[in-house]
Design goal:
single chain; alpha+beta; Protein Transport Mog1p, Chain A; seven-stranded antiparallel sheet; 3 helices
């Protein structure tokens, strides 16, 4: 079971160059490149499937990405990498106002996602055991992939998940911290940024 607060991770073949830290006493939004053609491609292999996801340049590496994940090794959930944006309080280790990650989770025993009447989002909700009160859940299709999108309304967060095997799912998740949440216009922009990143995910084989 994955906690809804976990950061997601993925595997990486190219190097990510962290953005320059600017010392300041309060949160200052980072200038994020929105031209996807300028984003860095990252490649990660999950079992026999190669994925590519693109990330804007200047992201902080919160957790170093790994290069391969086997679902056989995931008994609960596995955080492979985490990235941050809007890190502007003056120290590299300070909290990023946007945290993005990729993780792989195993569906708990007793929860079936193979019955025809069961959609995979229902399995994920059962597995995460997160109260749906104050949350919104919907299916969204980007390209060839259908994602189950969970989002928090009172505590802002977004999680996009797809099944990768009978018992496992991949999640790309965004969390937003208080300085950002206090600026609704920027919060809306950063939630859109997380969606834009999810839209770049492709299966290459």
């Amino acid at each position: 079971m994955r906690p809804f607060t976990n950061c997601c991770t993925f595997l990486l073949y190219l190097a990510l160059v962290p953005g320059t830290m600017v010392a300041c006493s309060a949160y200052t939004p980072q200038r994020i490149e929105r031209d996807i053609a300028q984003w860095h491609p990252y490649y990660f292999r999950l079992d026999d499937t190669l994925y590519r996801i693109q990330i804007p340049p200047g992201a902080m590496i919160i957790k170093q990405p790994v290069t391969d994940v086997s679902t056989d090794s995931v008994d609960d959930y596995f955080i492979a990498a985490a990235f941050g944006f809007d890190f502007g309080r003056g120290t590299y280790n300070d909290i990023a106002q946007v945290e993005l990650g990729v993780s792989v989770s195993r569906i708990n025993d007793g929860i079936s996602c193979v019955e025809e009447e069961s959609r995979f989002g229902e399995c994920i909700l059962q597995d995460s055991k997160v109260s749906v009160k104050g949350n919104m859940n919907q299916y969204q299709t980007f390209g060839l992939l259908q994602w189950f999108h969970e989002s928090g309304t009172r505590l802002p967060w977004d999680g996009y998940s797809i099944l990768v095997s009978r018992d496992h799912y991949l999640t790309i998740e965004g969390h937003y911290w208080e300085d950002l949440v206090e600026r609704p216009d920027m919060l809306a922009d950063r939630r859109k940024l997380v969606e834009e990143i999810v839209r770049t995910v492709q299966i290459l084989n």
